[in-house]
Amino acid sequence: MKDMTHASSLMITEKIGWLEDRYWRFGQDETMSDHLHDLYEVDDEGQMTAEPRRDPLTRETKGLMVLGGSGNGKTLLLRRTLRANPVLTEFTEDDPGNTLFITVPPEATIKKLAEIILESTDYKNIHSKLRAADAWELAQHRFSVVGIKTVVIDECHHILRGGSGRDVRAAIQSLKHLMQSDHGVALIIAGVPSLRDDILAGPSGKIYRCFREFNLSMIRRGSRSAILFGSNFVKSAEKFAVSAREEDEFAERILFAEHGQVGRSIALAKEILRDAVSRKRDELSLAHAERVFRKINGDLEMTPFHFDDWSAVKRELEAIGWGQ
Questions:
Q1: Which residues contact 3 (CB under 8 A, 6 or more apart)?
Q2: Disulfide engineering: 61 pairs with which of 141, 179, 221, 293, CB 3.0-4.6 Å?
Q3: Whole-model pTM?
């Protein structure tokens, strides 16, 4: 990443690249790291190791369930936390790390997820008639072969949907086996809040007790997260020598526009900044921000970027049922 100290001397593409890669912190990183620490053994210095903790009686490993609404930044937080962790390294084709990150497609069955795991760990001989149970047995064996200690399953709620060709009971049992096998892994699953209910509804609810919960909340007005969001926005604008009038309250308008959802709020904020940088503007305006918002969301009657005092705009939007 290029040094942004003298941002005005950088090319537009360099500024946009910096903006896209910039990570905005909201205080959830520390909580996530704390939860992560509890999944593993520690050394004599109290430092986390890559070895999953096991229950002394059952020998099961530990699990973490990360819950949040769509657009609440679960994926970004997970990936950032893993990248920043000095012990966990992601397994890729070019880097045989100890952590496998899987994103479940919406249409995936439990068998398909096992096949994705096999493909992701470079297993080449997947037979088309392979049974789901056999595919999972192979997947678990692959972990010991390639040295996987941690498995992250993002969008996990997709495999727990009912319907033709789906077996929710088998899906829950397969997740439990990941923590029960001889080469059990630390398991992190992430999804929308209904994931908790789906897991809890499993056979006797036993697997639910294997997981701790980390619920991602929305950014609420006046909270520390809202203050950090505003600071991130202003500092990013300053890096590009783009000014933003304090009285326009861009950060509050963005959070209101996206109902405080972390991922969507960051995406909109960056798109507004990108628009200013790419068009060589030295000042943000509500008119330009509204144009960006309308291009994403359609031609709405009124938006949070309407040119007027923010408190008045907010009252009017709430009166017409914005966000309901």
A1: none
A2: 179
A3: 0.83
Contact 71, 264 (CB under 8 A): yes
* CA distances to 157, 281, 313 from 198, in Å: 8, 49, 40
Residue 52, H or E segment: strand 48-52
Residue in 59, 159, 180 with CA at minimum distance from that of residue 103? 159
Whole-angstrom distance, CA of residue 27 vs CA of residue 264: 17
Q: Cα–Cα distance between 185 and 177 in angstroms, integer?
A: 10
Per-residue pLDDT tens, the chain, 324 aa: give them: 444 555 556 789 999 999 998 989 887 888 999 999 999 999 999 999 999 999 888 889 999 999 998 888 899 899 999 999 999 999 988 888 999 999 999 988 888 999 999 999 988 888 878 888 888 989 989 999 999 999 999 999 999 887 776 788 888 888 888 998 888 899 999 999 999 988 887 665 677 788 999 999 889 888 999 999 999 999 999 999 999 999 999 999 999 999 999 999 999 999 999 999 999 999 999 999 999 999 999 888 899 999 999 999 999 999 988 865
| 18-42 CB burial, b ≥16 within 10 A, e <16 | bbeebebebebeeebeebbeebbee
Cβ contact 237:231 at 8 Å: no
Angle at Cα 181 formed by Cα 178 and Cα 187, nearest 5°? 25
